[in-house]
Amino acid sequence: MDWSIQEIARIAGTTSRTLRHYDDIGLLKPSRTGHNGYRYYDGPALVQLQRIILLRELGLGLPAIAEVLDRETDTVKALSSHLEWLAQEQDRLTRQIASVRQTIDTMKGDGKYMAQNMFDGFDHTQYKDEVEERWGKDAYAASDSWWRGMSAEEKQEWKVRVEKLGADWISAAESGVSPDSEAAQDVARRHVEWLRGIPGTPSAAPGGDAKGYVEGLGEMYVADPRFAANYGGERGATFVRDALRVYAERNL
After folding, report:
1. HEC letters along 71-131
2. pTM of the model as a whole
3. Domain CATH number, residue 24
4. Which end of the chain has fewer CB within 10 Å, C or N?
5. In a domain, 195, yes or no
6. Would you say residue 213 lies in a domain?
7. Is 12 helix (H, G, I), strand (E, B) or coil?
8. pLDDT tens, position by position, for the chain (252 residues)?
9. What is the 3-state secondary structure (H, E, C) of 21-72?
């Protein structure tokens, strides 16, 4: 069984023009082309399109998506990993919804705010497993305690700083400068300073393996689409990794 390009565009919420572009760049080939020139797509092609859409929602560009699809040929394994990530996101969004709903109810009711409930789902706990696996439970506990001890204003300032850092990385990568350039190394310096401000990390602890930590983070930015999305996709994350590696070699 297969479907016409118009049917797939309607079902997937995209356009025939987009699907034709995916065909032109080799990202998604139709399973067959009719005598009338129409493209048709079968089940495996739909699975490929689903993966493309999921990766686009992570913020990856088409070249980065092509690299992921070429590298991760085990479709079931890849979709299982993505499903796990979606489940984590679902849990986070569910907690955010409950938190905002509670705030609205409080504003309509007695006005007694519960600060510990207002920011559930907005913090960094989504990375708990990664942090504990790579750097231990003590590292996570220290950073978690530090984060929860912040005021709402301090948390917002921190988030703005992180967003600015991510935007500067993307700008540097897209400007065409090399990872060891002065401009890239300036952003790398700020990135390491930012990391040193997080208690519990090896870069913050006296005698910690700051060099190994920074280089390891760079590798994780590239390997994990969730992190790569902060830097414009895998290509941007690769630039960040290379720049951080240069900085670590020179300064840590």
Report:
1. HCCCHHHHHHHHHHHHHHHHHHHHHHHHHHHHHHHHHHCCCCCCHHHHCCCCCCHHHHHHH
2. 0.48
3. 1.10.1660.10
4. N
5. yes
6. yes
7. helix
8. 889 999 999 988 889 999 999 999 999 999 999 888 889 999 999 999 999 988 887 767 888 888 888 888 888 888 887 787 777 777 767 777 777 777 777 777 655 544 444 344 444 555 555 555 555 566 556 666 666 677 777 777 877 788 888 888 998 998 889 999 999 999 999 998 888 877 766 666 566 677 887 888 888 888 877 778 778 888 888 999 999 999 999 998
9. HHHHCCCCCCCEECCCCCEEEEHHHHHHHHHHHHHHHCCCCHHHHHHHHHHC
Say if residue 245 is in the same domain as residue 139. Answer: yes
Give the total residue count for the chain: 252
Retrieve residue 147's tokens. Answer: 């984060």
214-219's contacts with Cβ under 8 Å and 24+ in sequence apart are: 214/244, 214/247, 214/248, 214/252, 215/244, 215/245, 215/248, 216/134, 217/244, 218/242, 218/244, 218/245
- Looking up tokens 């079931």 gives 76
Please state, in angstroms and rounded to a whole number, the distance separating the CA atoms of residues 107 and 74.
50
